[in-house]
Every structure is written in C-alpha cells, then in structure tokens.
Amino acid sequence: MKSSLLLLALVRLCSGASYFFDGAANNAGEGSESQPYNNLAVISSLKLQPGDKILLKRGSSIVGPLVLTSSGSTSAPINIGAYGNAEQPKPVVVGGGLSTVLIQGASHVVVEDLEVTNPGDNKSALRGVYIYGYDSGNVKDVTVQNLYIHDVRGYMPSTTTGGAPVGKYANASGAIVVEAGGSTTPTYFTGINIQDNEIRSVDRQGIYTWSNWCQRPELAAFWFTLCTAPWYASSGLLVQRNRLYDVGGDGIVVKGHEGAIVKDNLVVGFNKRSKSPNAGVWTANSINSLFQYNTVSGGTTTSDGMSYDVDHSTSGTVFEYNVSHDNEGGFFLLCPYDKPTTNFTIRYNLSVNDKTRIFQICDGALTGGKIYKNTIQIGSGISPVIVTEDTSASLDVLFADNIIRKEGSGRATWKLQDEYFSVVKNSFYGPIDTYFNATGSVTEAPGLAAPGLRDPKAYYLLNGYPTLDVAVDIVGDASVDFFNNPTTGHKNLGFYSGTGTNIPIWISKFDDSDISAWKSSSGSATIVPDPAGDLGNSVQLAPSTVFSRPIGASLPFRFNARIWIDAVSTSKPVSVRVGSTSKAIDVVLGNPETYRTGEWQILEVLLTSSGQSATLGGTALTAVPVADNAGLVIFTAGGSKVHIDDIFTVSL
C-alpha cells in the first residue's frame, strides 16, 4: 500500500500541476478546471515548478499579456497550452501590451496550441510571442509550436528614425521575436524550436532573432552602433514547417546564431507594408546557417525584395533545395558591406519568374562563394539582370553548372565585371546576353520537362539534351539533389541529378488563354489572372463546374496540377478523377484538414497497374479506385470556387 501511494506521489510530481484559465469565466476562480482563473495576471503569483501546465480553454478568448518567468527542467518543461473540447478552436490570447505572450529568461518551456493576436495602429512596437533574455545567461530549450498568430500591428511603415529603421534590430515588432539583451551577463539561447506555426498579417517581422551580444572582428562596422556587447552566439535554433502569409516586412531572419537550421517553411507575400528593404528568408552576423526546402513567393518590392539573402558578417551559410518564384526584387541578395561574406554555398535551388535581379551583390567583398546547380526559369515579359555587381571589391565566387532559361519577350542581362567571379559550364538559353568572361557555356535548349510551371518536377531534364552528364565537379558537393537523387549518379546541370525523363504527354498552363482541349459543364470555366498575383493566368471554376479532358496516357503515368480552393465545402467537396482506359481513381477533398484554402498547392497522382497514390502539398491523400475506363481527368468544383493551373502528365 505504501509503495502504491509513493508511486502515485511520484507520478503527480513528474506530471506537475495544471492551472486552468477561461477568459469567459464570471469570477476569478481558483485555477481548477471547474473553477478556472479568468485573468492571466495571476500567473505571476503562482509558484510554478517543472512539469506544471498553464492551460487556456479552447473556444474562449482572454486578454493578454501572458507572461512566464519560471523555468521547467529538461525532463519536465513548463507547458502553456489548451484544454477542453478538441473540436473547439484554439484559445485566443489578445493583446495586452507590447507582447501578447512573453517568455522572459525562462528555460525548458513549451508554448503550443494557441491563437495569438496583438492589434494596433502601426505606431509602436508590438509582438505576438517574445522570447527574451536580459542578462539571463544561457536560456535553454524553448519550443513554440502549432500557434496561429495574426494581426500583430507593430511599426509600419518602417521609416528611419535616428539612423535605424524601426521595427527590427532591438525591440523588434512581429509575430515571433527572439532577443538576447543586456550588457553585464552574457546572454544567449540554446535549443529554440519554432515549428508548425501559421502566421498571417503581421508587422514588421514574421520570425526574427536579434542579439545585443554581437560584437566581433567579423562584424560590419555599422552594426557597432546597433549592438554593444561582445559576441556570444546562440545555438541550436530550429525553424521548421511554419507558414507565413502577408508579412509587412521580412519573413524569417536569423541573426546572432551558430548552426541555425531553417527548413520546410513557406512564405507567401513579404514587404507588403514596410516601404523599406526586406527579404523573404535571410541571415546576418551568423555562422554555419543552413536553409533547406523553403518556398518563398510574392515579395512586393525592389528595395531588396529577394526571396533569400546571405547578408553581412556571415560565414559557412548554405542555401540548398529551396524554391523561389514571382518575387519583384528577384532571387538572391548578397550584402557583405565592409567585411567579406565568406564561404557561402547556394546550390540545388529553383527560381521561377523572379524579377529585376537574379543575384544582386551589394557593396563589399565575397570570399569562397559557390553558386552552382541551380535551375532558373525566366518568363515572358521579365528582363532581370542575372548578376548585378554594385561593388568594386573583389568577388571570389564560382558560378557553375546552373541552368538559366529565358522565354518570350524581354531579355536577361549582366552587370558584372569582376575577373574573380568565375562563370563556368552553365546553360544559357533564350534571349540572354552573353557574358564576356563565361567559359564552357551550353547554349542549346536545356531540355526542361515543362518550363514555366511552378512545380519543381516540371524541371526534370528530358532524355537526349546537352545538360545531362556534363557538369564540372564541385569540391564539397552535396550527396543528393533537390529530389533526393544521388549526385554521383548523373552529373547534370541544374538542380536535378536523375536520369533523363520522358516528354510530358501534354501541358496546360493557360497563359495563352487556350482551354480548347478541355470541356466544361454544369457551370463555367474562365481564364483569369493568377489569384496569388503571380505571373500568368489560371482557370477559375465556378461552384459545381465539371472540367475535363482526355488523359491521353497508358499506365503507368504521373499527373501533376496546382489547385487553389477558395473556401471549405464539406457537403459538396472538390474532387479530382484521374484515369486511363484501364484504371481510374478519385481524390475527394472533403476533409478540410487535408488542404488549405486561399493558396496554391500541388496535387500529384501516381497511377500504375499495381497501385495508386495521391498527395496534396506533400501530404498523402486517399486515392479511391473507381469503375471508369473513359480515360479522363475530371475536376469537379463542388461547392467551392476553384482555380487550377500548371497541369501536366508524364508516362513513366
């Protein structure tokens, strides 16, 4: 009996106490589930211990700020989360001051499953979640996950006051800000995880890190007025699987870190209101940062405005396996200032219809840079500069094994004179000016499978083209390409290292407004501009429309399309039928958990004699076999307005 009681006590000790909050409760309560607190200010009086939980009721709203200064432990973090009916929406924490959720000097903390907002007039600093250390030493293991953060209205526009733009650096505004401050006790972070969050309509920053502990010999001179303490790098930062939309300024920014990893994030629309230089995903004053499998689009500025940026005071930065499309500023920015940016690598990335500049180099030197095996598609009506050199400093950069294809009207040019910028064995096709110092260039058609589309698989290389197996060897090359093919198998130009593939049986991208191969019934199909504002057109299907055409393929084959669904309709869901004359499947988008509204996602269907599969945005869907040998692809809009684009079919 005594042993059982002891075991129960140990279980309770390890699991911690739970404190319940409900903003709709009529009285202050006592913190139990039946009598919850109704005011977050009480947290400061709680004697929180490792393993304790602060739980907010789902379906309720409570006024912030939510402030935590107590730490958990490695095995028993303090958890801030939700309780109640799982069918109800996340609990909402609203405003309450500078930061809606503040984690100050606290280690071993998990914040999850909340909705966070901080409305304002864009005239002061405001934040959604603020992870802050001030003379705090090593702040460890803070995880922020599965939050919905929106309408955080900090400084906008980001005008310059006192020499520094407001809304960033110290006391930044944005959705999630991580800052190390102070001047007496070295302060830095270890093991910050920011993952699986949705961020919408925030000003100025999406996800932003800053440290006052930044001064070192490699630091650009102008930052010595912005941060004042000696260098103590934070480490173990992981930013993954976040989705950011409509960001006033920068999307994701890493500063003051060593070994940060930023991967599998989506940024749609940045610099929407800032009226100052911003980029999608970038780093400054950091060491060995790794950026992988991110997608950035919709940057609306030429004041920077690139998807990605290797900025000043950095070394060992790697950008690989990323996608960029339809950004006004362009693809990549390199900004060294008065100290060289060193040993950076940009490889196996895809750029589609990025404008103005593909690569821009600000004033300053580059040392040990490698830009190789990227695939760049430039659409009609765009005339970017491939490399813009805005410096007289030396540029020690290898630019090799890339594919740059330009189609339609407009012309791609160069603004590059540096003799140390080595342009070797690249494919240049279409109306592109010849770079005087390039060697080994391939000028025949590169053999991209379906150029102009925004699906990475449209940029596989076709059999029989001169971009296959001709790349020069690069010291330190990655082991796999964008698609996880081994890079030793085929030394191709561009971001695809697989075998040559078949020509698509047909392609529909609708930029020519031609839908003659398609048949619509029970509604209307209309050519309209891309709903995201990207280059070109799409087809808009009114609710209940059925839109079909012959598939023209025998098993096995792969079918790819981009699809945009305006609103959830569970009673009349969107569906897609894909079939040959011997086999067909239906993919029904009836569960709103399987798709996201108001944005493009790639649908892929694989059909073989022995099986079938379907994914949407990389998430597996159920592919239901049906008795239909008509050999058609059929989009049924159901109760939603639907856009489709970038459709192609390939025999395997």
UniProtKB/TrEMBL annotation:
Pfam families hit by this protein: Beta_helix
Keywords: Signal
Entry keyword Phosphoprotein: no
Start and end residues of each Right handed beta helix domain: 234-355
Secretion signal span: 1-16
UniProt entry tagged with the keyword Acyltransferase: no
Domain of life where this protein originates: Eukaryota
The name this protein goes by in its record: Right handed beta helix domain-containing protein
Source organism (scientific name): Pseudogymnoascus verrucosus
Lineage, broadest ranks: Eukaryota, Fungi, Dikarya, Ascomycota, Pezizomycotina
